[in-house]
Write a structure and sequence with these properties.
single chain; mainly alpha; two-stranded antiparallel sheet; two-stranded antiparallel ribbon; 4 strands; 61% helix; elongated
């Protein structure tokens, strides 16, 4: 798999590179931060301590795309360009950008100290944008549907197996217009605000709070998880909007299993990211393969894959339930606020606005990084040039 590149600079120990580049308990396999773009790209096929970090998020792009594309082959599914799929496409773009930015950040960060900072600022930005992409998918496909009712249908607790005849009616607050209006007004904006808080916090850990940077970066993304998962918590604690005997109910019943698995993988990934196991137990032995960040990547992707399966289950449930209609209360609200279904403005518009904000934040921190590390970058470049001439 590895290439023998005659012009590739030698790999170094942790004592031979700037402290800014080193990682805890990783002793060898470092690239000096003066690589050209070509050398960075070729290093994907060399045994560096970033090789596994690149491949563990680059290869999953194709796995995710394969499972994502299955939706458009379902019988009765509208065309991929249909507004119904706008939230799903935003989710796909969020995941795609996350995986590509993460893999390229690990591949290209050895170009210079400043480029290294910018790479990971972009990485944090795509993670934040992904959380909003997830929120859009949750909102339109796993929405608590407080104002959505099926004409003449009985209700059942999610996964309870209660028969339609014996199923109790929903509680009085389940379809209260005020609750629905509050959720619809605050959910997506709250997700965007939390995403901005996350990128600000994570970017700050590269310039201050460095001692606790891994703990902060891990815990700070607990907030968007709690906010974006609100529709799922609601669904798990209340009732399914589908009749127990329906195919939609059967499809939606798997949501809980996928969500619990999604959570489990996130917990395991957090443990790896904070503990730095296994390299903490044997420094130097896991420098190239098997260190905690690679395991962290694998677990985060498995959590995303289970999240995709969860969303697909709900998309299928909605497609199988064409009689799901707006209640009179929600229809009246929708007439004032606009269509309750996804639109280009409420999906792509939200993501583009968020991405513009994130880009501005990245630009600000990149400017600060230039002022902090620019002189050291130039000094390292001159030192590398002198070393090259001496040889």
């Amino acid at each position: 798999m590895f290439l023998n590149c005659t012009d590739a600079p030698p790999l170094l120990r942790h004592t031979e590179v700037p402290p800014r580049v080193t990682e805890n308990y990783i002793l060898t396999g470092y690239r000096f931060p003066n690589y050209s773009l070509r050398q960075c790209l070729l290093s994907a096929f060399r045994p560096t301590n970033e090789t596994g970090n690149f491949w563990t998020h680059f290869l999953p792009v194709f796995v995710f795309a394969y499972h994502f594309a299955e939706v458009f082959g379902w019988e009765g599914a509208p065309p991929g360009r249909d507004p119904f799929f706008y939230p799903l496409w935003n989710y796909f773009l969020g995941v795609l950008c996350l995986l590509m930015a993460s893999s390229l950040a690990h591949l290209l960060n050895s170009m210079s100290l400043v480029v290294r900072e910018v790479c990971f600022f972009v990485d944090y930005g795509t993670i934040s944008a992904y959380t909003v992409g997830s929120s859009l998918a949750y909102y339109y496909y796993i929405h608590p549907r407080a104002g959505l009712l099926e004409a003449g249908a009985a209700w059942a607790y999610n996964g309870s197996g209660v028969s339609p005849r014996d199923s109790p009616r929903p509680p009085a607050w389940y379809g209260v217009p005020d609750v629905s209006a509050l959720f619809e007004s605050c959910y997506v904006p709250s997700s965007c605000v939390v995403a901005i808080i996350c990128i600000l916090s994570c970017c700050n850990t590269r310039q201050r709070w460095r001692r606790y940077r891994y703990v902060i970066r891990t815990l700070v993304f607990l907030l968007p998880f709690l906010v974006s998962s609100t529709p799922i918590f609601y669904r798990l604690l209340t009732r399914s909007p589908y009749r127990p005997a329906s195919t939609s109910f059967a499809s939606s019943a798997s949501m809980a299993v996928y969500f619990y698995r999604h959570c489990a993988w996130l917990v395991v990934s957090a443990v790896f990211n904070i503990s730095k196991v296994p390299e903490r137990l044997a420094p130097g032995r896991f420098d190239v393969w098997g260190h905690s960040h690679q395991l962290f990547h694998c677990c985060t992707f498995l959590s995303i894959l289970d999240e995709l399966h969860m969303i697909k289950a709900e998309v299928r449930a909605v497609l199988l339930q064409p009689t799901l209609v707006l209640s009179e209360a929600t229809a009246a609200t929708a007439a004032v606020s606009g269509s309750p279904g996804p639109t280009a403005l409420s999906t792509y518009g939200v993501m583009l606005t968020l991405q513009a904000t994130i880009a501005a934040i990245i630009g600000w921190f990149s400017w600060q990084a230039e002022h902090i590390y620019g002189a050291e970058r130039d000094q390292l470049a001159r030192r590398a040039l002198k070393g090259h001439k001496s040889h």
